[in-house]
Amino acid sequence: MSQTLAMLQPLDLGFCQLKNRVVMGSMHTGLEEEKHGFDKLAVFYRERVEGGVGLIVTGGISPNFRGRLTPGATQLSFPWQVGKHRIVTDAVHQAGGKICMQLLHAGRYGYHPFSLAPSAIKSPITPFTPKAMSLRQIKGTIKDFARSAALAKKAGYDGVEVMGSEGYLINQFICTRTNQRDDQYGGSFEKRIQFALDVVAAIRARVGAEFIIIFRLSMLDLVDNGSNWTEVVALAKALETTGVNLINTGIGWHEARIPTIATSVPRAAFSWVTEKLRREVSIPLIATNRINMPEVIEHILQSGQADMVSMARPLLADPQFVNKAAAGHDALINTCIGCNQACLDHTFKLQRATCLVNPRAVYETEINFTPVTKAKSLAVVGAGPAGLAFAVYAAERGHRVTLFEANGEIGGQLNFAKNIPGKEEFNETLRYFRAQLDQHNVDVRLNCEFSSKDASGFDEVIIATGVRPRQLDIEGINHPKVMSYQALLSGQQQAGSSVAIIGAGGIGVDVAHFLAERTSATLVPEKWYARWGIDTQYQHRGGLVDALETEQPSEPRELYLLQRKPTPIGKGLGKTTGWIHRAMLKLHHVKQLVGVEYKKVDDDGLHIVHQGQAKLLPVDTVVICAGQESNGQLADELIAAGIAVHLIGGVKIAAELDAKRAIRDAALLAAAI
């Protein structure tokens, strides 16, 4: 089968050959700044090479101090900095791989008061106004890029990727949005792209012909006053002439209010623009964004949309992705679900990145599932995220694992999450766990209640029974129109045409989206493009057209989302995805009320007090999303009986539903037990 996969075909760059068409795209891990972090980074990258990746691109490294993203971020500017990079390149080469260092100058995105940009225009996502670069500073920065590339070559890198997209410095020079200069680097399009061309030319002059230069080109800015298609093509052709070997696809500036990599983005949603550019240049192009399964890669490559594909988060999720695809074991791939909760959300909080579905990611030297010398017989109670992860990891180590689940299917809360529009990727997580349970011979017992009498014969019992919805103590809580979010999302009960949702945390927001949009736009790309105002005909600057102000709901409903706290709804949602959820509430005209006191439910609806006034919401359905409680009765029973137990996941801490913490809990226990 492997011979038929386009992703496994080599790519000849003339002076070197890449073993296949899969690039591990740039992702900052946080190890770059940790003490001894490059030792850990070497292990991290080596595992991906051993897993089959053809080419790795590192996280962004600044060519000078002012280009750093944060004051403590890594740069490569001096010979004494070469040594730690050599640790990484040696590890990659020993494993038979190739690696390029990404050169990234933050420009006005620098999160410090020393930032420089083409013009002194503050970005909407950083607190500092940059200083406009002098001509001397521009010339110096070009030299710094070249010096850094030369040092990268000395450190053993096979090439560099020049970050010219996502709204960083080079991208800032290209667009009138951020470049209001009137000298040789501003004004006309030809002058605005001169900085990018000078950087590439200076790098090529320093590193010679036999060194890979990738240019990350912003093919679709998705911001006002971005590049138009004619300009994108002209720059791509100029870059090819200047000496670039590969062009990587950049999509959207960081300040763009259009999602580009979140789970609600359709798979391969932007490969059309790579295909469009591929007709214009002769050097290989790399497609990016929401490419997370082998069939997606194969479609892109076999249909001629791109020459290579870049994946970052999917290779966090499963370092063995390529090997599994080559062996035809797609079902065993731990698929990236695009949640951003443990990777990008961590990065933007200056924490070490990892992965919700793979807590070993970026912790390869700290979390390992080594074979046991003496196998134990373990009972795992509950087949939600924590129970599933523990069962797989413990069985992988060689323990004999029996997994008990009271319901008729595995998955726990994942079975509710997968039904939310835009969260369909959780189906892949469930598929992965089913395959892994079978692969590791876990004895799965569904529809099986576990009690203390079942504990005999097991060395230890792991309780992963999760949570149950918290009940509200208000009059009429047992009225027929009241239901839990679990009953709604599982299909046990149906909502009417007017719904009050009590609780506006992550679950409440998801329920509102579920009720407003039963046909997911994620599965209908044309609908998704129209929703966000993406011009797939590319007739407008930045690839933008007017986004929809509202959508006709799949099932017209009047929706109220209610919160006790007076703070804005959605404040506690994910740092990189919360704004998307808030935009969906607005799009679907969900009425949002905060500072609400709940009084009673009766035939007339839900009685509340809002802003000191008694109000009646005349709804026919009330959905309770008011938090969770630990489902811990069994644990109490077993402990009382003197049985050795371990608690993981929601049963241990019944806060906001948190699959990231649940799976990490499971991994840590499985590695130690």
Automatic annotation (TrEMBL):
Claim: Lipoprotein is one of the keywords in the record: no
Origin: domain of life: Bacteria
InterPro entries, alphabetized: Aldolase_TIM, FAD/NAD-bd_sf, FAD/NAD-binding_dom, NADH:flavin_oxidoreductase, OxRdtase_FMN_N
SUPFAM superfamilies, alphabetized: FAD/NAD(P)-binding domain, FMN-linked oxidoreductases, Nucleotide-binding domain
Domain spans labelled NADH:flavin oxidoreductase/NADH oxidase N-terminal: 8-328
Gene3D superfamilies xrefs: Aldolase class I, FAD/NAD(P)-binding domain, NAD(P)-binding Rossmann-like Domain
Pfam family, one: Pyr_redox_2
Keywords from the named record: Flavoprotein, FMN, Iron, Iron-sulfur, Metal-binding, Oxidoreductase
Family: In the N-terminal section; belongs to the NADH:flavin oxidoreductase/NADH oxidase family.
Name of this chain's protein: NADPH-dependent 2,4-dienoyl-CoA reductase
Organism for this UniProt entry: Shewanella avicenniae
